[in-house]
Amino acid sequence: MKKVLISLIITLLIWGAGAFAFFFIKEYVPKQLKAASDIVTTEKEVENEKEVSQDLKEVIHNVQKLVVKIQLEDGSLGSGFVYNNQGDVVTNAHVVANTKDVTVVTADSKELPGTVIGIGQDTDVAVVRVPGLADTEPLKVARERKGEIGDEVLALGSPLGYQNTVTTGIISGIDRDIDIEPFHYEDAYQISAPIAPGNSGGPLVDSKTGEVLGINSAGLMEVAGSIGFSIPITSVLPLIDGWVASPMTDLPAIEMGGNEYAQEEEYSLEEYSNYLVQYFYESLNYGDYVTAYSLLGASWQSNTTYDEFRKGYLNTLAVKINDITASASDNTGTVTAVITAQERKDSGTVYSQYKVNYKIGYENDQLVIISGAGEKLE
């Protein structure tokens, strides 16, 4: 009887162990497999993020090649972009007002003659024909759709003479109506991307598709502080295509009202200095250390090699400007900013706040960051 009881107990134990093993395999192992799957998914998401980042760089590279700087005899500057394979460049009317012949500077620094073939009298758009750009593949234009609030965009141009500058932002408002004599801006986009004198006429581009959504107008900055505006390309396509098909033989005289469209040299050093520091951090956020380094003055560069400069920012993942102010005295600007830096440390990603001060000045007629210093805020 005792042996039978022992055998029964052993049998029950074996059954119990088998049941537990079945339950473990059925319930626990799938969870472990799912956890492994989550890791793979996370890795794929990271890979996708890298692909998106690479796509953005590709969009910027492709668009920059087709954005030009427009120079007038009086020294004023503007921007434009290649619109078709006839060599036509779209820009703002106030950039080329009351002139016929201009010089167009391409991304590879070629200077080409251009002729204004169409210009609006109450709409701030114009077309410049550049024979030297004929047969050039143009930028893609969003002909069938308008931008929407929240769309991520790129503003390209030559602010302050810095050619092929890219700033990022979103469309923060639509359907804005503004009058700046003699032009009326209807249904304009309000954008968060910083723009400055020289940006006028440059394209507003969808950062995902590379399509032109609008034409930037830096002239509006004087009216609305740091808010930028862009003319929807869909609103002016009939005008542009009309001039392309049938160029104007006589260009109208345009009376520019007030000083809202003052030439580049008439903008304040405070504005220049403020923008230059923003441009510096935009370049760092792109990982464009070459451009950021080029904005430094000769003294700073002589004390810091490019490799040292680049190495100093390799672990800075992103910088956000929380607050920025600028002042100027004589030919020197001072910029103070509070920034939040996302930094890679041994312990992981950390966010740190800094107060930075920059001295801005001219070297060889080019505005540069002469010196800078910062302190970490607790």
TrEMBL record:
A Pfam family: Trypsin_2
Highest taxon in the source lineage: Bacteria
GO molecular function terms noted in the UniProt entry: serine-type endopeptidase activity
GO biological process, one term: proteolysis
Keywords: Hydrolase, Protease, Serine protease
Protein name according to UniProt: S1-C subfamily serine protease
Organism: Bacillus benzoevorans
